[in-house]
């Protein structure tokens, strides 16, 4: 209720400036074009990501390497010439993976490659042994009668489809997020889902967070690799009972952990208190080294900010680059940022998070007010030569930005090509070797040009349309 | 010495028939064409491989699932209508993988994905901790001074290149086969090699067998995934010492295991004691489910034999399909077959093993005597429509066939396209979903046509040229 009031107030405050149409000068466009072309030749993002993945590696929120990652981010912002570098506290619970195994006991003894879902409870040390009951998708599981899966291990076998805009993720990921509690309501002892991923070439399960209902018993939950989901489905097709033993050592620590968002700024020359926010999230899952999710986003936006910082004259507004804490397990960094900066929501001209891998940007989506929509053409003059199309005016802005978006802050999304993103998303295969330096530089060019232009805008970009739902 | 004498005797015996040029009738060619076309539509190999990988899975030699695999093979031969099904004893030591981990301790704590090499000894339970010394390839390691790597963990970073004919394997695999003993001679405590594999998209290490020198201390040996080899190389490039802790629970059991080659026959109608041998190896590594290595070879040759067995009239010679035991850890099945059948070497017209994956066959290599070379044209009349070229007359025949080849038996190789074979070879990713049913059927068509024609040949195909060396 308090939040809703805040949204109304902010939207009201923003609407005051509606009368004045925002603008950019030709000189600003020229500077942005030069920044863009310089960025295409610049290796800062690539060397930054190389450094992060080589010297730190995986950064599971709350782990020792997550803490090393924060130290790295502070040092890297300073090294890249940001003139203000600081951290802001973020609190969250710490989840640990522990051991994990999944074994078909009968009729065809085989090991299945499995990864606990983030936030899952563990099994008893001796594991849970039960026969498997397959549901073709989350809807079929939801539609089952109460106790339909009593004493069973539920298996949701639905396969995610690949798409440039990642459209297959939403319909598939609900099984990961809500499957455990729905299965528990049907009486299941545990749940196995087919990995939310589009790969065929690897036997690597895709982890990712789940959400337990507050009122439902918490059952262990894990993802099978696509290959192993196929294998289990083939066993089940033979008709007889398939008995599986699942062992998960996963647990959540009782103490709250204090992490931090790490922030670097290029201070504005005219309106230092006004902010253009770009960023990525510093945490990752533990299986790979967090290269594409989301070392790339951190590296892209750090490099974009650094290039802006090297301009002869600082931009009018402050360019704030945020390396968010613990996005993966519940957008903790983004929520903490919004809680800390809610009152300054209308000092944020616009925000964008890079968190969809390291492939090229192909579309520029906005969430601007009607008055600011003509200005999209000015942005597009600089972005179109990068192969970027104009998109819709419904941008969410990215997970860590969405809580501020709810307070009336305009956002954009520089949409990356996600055709192959979900092949390696949340797997052990998320490593530096998957990143193409040219594609990464194209991202930096787009972010540098966008952030610089936004920092120069004379006027405001809001109020944005209502935030999208169901994302 | 005894072996050499046997070779000379056999070659002598075969040369007696040199005067008579072998031949095939037009009716034989027609039957082979019909078999070929039928095989292209036949699903037996695919369902056989589905059954093997689903109901049995990995078949590490000497493991319980290896034993289940033999029972499966006996039952499957019978199910497919082979009129004689039997086993022949094969003895070998049993190697167990145990736990395995590799951790960079300093300066950049990270886990590296690792797999023990087959036959490796284990580390002490607390592991081996030492700094890493990189060699760019096996030659560089070999050229190092004695004690150059004293107290170190050696890392051979050479990357294998992909090629249609697998030509990159030989130059790379020597580091896996001989690296441990050479590193031990330089004083190393353990050896890590970059995986002998061509994948970029997975963090899966490639296992495979090593050979220890009899006179050198045995040190633990493991393969890093390509991604992790890159990572370690990047760490080392920074100049300071990189300390790694390697733990391997690998061991070889003291008792010899008694396994078996499993054999199915379509008995010859005219010369039942004369044999055309085709086959694959039934054992696999333990990380995947042994689909392309070498469930495919077993399925292809079983299906080819089964189709021949369905002909209205059995072919003149016996078609013998052999599912060899324990190829992976030292060609034990092939050597046992040769030891048992050495005296009947000249009753084997020709032999071929399918053991290079499940992609399409593109070349027909032979090892025939000069008198038989014109007959290759007859085989090619039936094979060329499958997209198969005529190759050279230097075929080795495949690992399990090579010991018989050494006794003067002619061989052929139906060369598969190996461009992507080493992406998943010996990894956890060797699973059924990688197999294209159409490519598998093309293999069956080639093997069925070849084996039928060979069984009909009036005359002999030898003596073959001297066996190739260094393969």
Structure description:
- The structure is a homodimer of 471-residue chains.
- Helix content of chain A is 33%, strand content 23%.
- Chain A contains 13 helices and 16 strands.
- Chain A has an 8-stranded mixed beta sheet with strand order 3-2-9-5-6-7-8-4. A 5-stranded mixed beta sheet of chain A has the order 1-10-12-11-13, with helices on both faces.
- In chain A, strand 5, helix 5 and strand 6 form a beta-alpha-beta unit.
- The longest helix of chain A has 20 residues.
- The first copy, chain A, starts with a helix and ends in a 15-residue tail after the last helix.
- The N terminus of chain A is likely disordered.
- The interface between A and B is large, with 40 and 40 residues.
Number of helices of chain A: 13
CA gyration radius of chain A, whole angstroms: 23 Å
Oligomer: homodimer
Gross geometry of chain A = elongated
Low-confidence regions of chain A: 1-18
One letter per element, helices H and strands E, the order of chain A comes to: HHHHEEEEEHEHEEHEEEHEHEEHEHEHH
Which two chains share the most extensive interface?
A-B, 40 and 40 residues
Fraction of residues in H or I helices of chain A: 25-40%
Structural class, from secondary structure content of chain A? alpha/beta
């Amino acid at each position: 209720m308090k939040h809703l009031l805040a949204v109304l107030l902010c939207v009201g405050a923003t609407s005051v400036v509606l009368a004045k149409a925002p603008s950019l000068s030709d000189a600003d466009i020229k500077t942005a074009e030069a920044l863009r072309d310089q960025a295409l030749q610049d290796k800062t993002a690539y060397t930054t990501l190389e450094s992060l993945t080589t010297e730190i590696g995986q950064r599971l929120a709350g782990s020792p390497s997550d803490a090393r990652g924060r130290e790295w981010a502070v040092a890297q912002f300073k090294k890249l010439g940001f003139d203000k570098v600081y951290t802001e506290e973020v609190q969250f619970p710490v989840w640990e993976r522990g051991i994990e195994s999944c074994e078909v006991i009968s009729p065809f003894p085989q090991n299945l490659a499995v990864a606990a879902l983030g936030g899952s409870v563990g099994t008893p040390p001796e594991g849970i042994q039960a026969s498997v009951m397959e549901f073709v998708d989350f809807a079929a599981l939801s539609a089952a009668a109460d106790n339909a899966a009593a004493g069973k291990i539920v298996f949701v076998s639905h396969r995610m489809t690949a798409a440039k805009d990642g459209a297959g993720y939403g319909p598939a990921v609900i099984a990961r997020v809500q499957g455990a509690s729905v299965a528990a309501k049907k009486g299941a002892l545990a749940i196995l889902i087919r990995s939310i991923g589009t790969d065929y070439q690897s036997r690597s399960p895709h982890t990712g967070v789940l959400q337990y209902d507050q009122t439902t018993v918490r059952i262990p939950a894990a993802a099978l690799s696509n290959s192993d989901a196929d294998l289990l489905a083939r066993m089940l097709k033979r008709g007889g009972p398939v008995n599986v033993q699942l062992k998960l050592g996963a647990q959540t620590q009782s103490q709250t952990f204090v992490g931090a968002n790490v922030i670097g700024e290029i201070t504005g020359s005219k309106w230092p208190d006004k902010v253009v926010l770009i960023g990525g999230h510093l945490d990752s899952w533990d299986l790979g080294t967090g290269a594409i999710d989301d070392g790339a986003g951190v590296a892209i936006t750090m490099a974009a900010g650094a290039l802006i910082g090297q301009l002869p004259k600082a931009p009018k507004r402050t360019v704030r680059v945020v390396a968010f804490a613990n996005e993966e397990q519940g957008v903790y960094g983004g929520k903490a940022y919004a809680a800390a900066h809610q009152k300054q929501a209308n000092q944020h001209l616009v925000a964008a998070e890079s968190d969809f891998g390291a492939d090229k940007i192909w579309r520029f989506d906005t969430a601007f007010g009607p008055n600011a929509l003509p200005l999209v053409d000015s942005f597009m003059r600089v972005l179109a030569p990068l192969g970027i199309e104009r998109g819709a005016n419904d941008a969410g802005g990215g997970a860590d930005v969405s809580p501020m978006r709810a307070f009336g802050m305009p956002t954009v999304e520089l949409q990356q090509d996600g055709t192959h993103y979900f092949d390696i998303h949340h797997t052990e295969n998320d490593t530096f070797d998957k990143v193409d330096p040219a594609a990464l530089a194209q991202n930096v060019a787009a972010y540098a040009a966008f952030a610089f232009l936004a920092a120069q805008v004379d006027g405001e970009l809001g109020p944005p349309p209502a935030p999208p739902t169901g994302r």
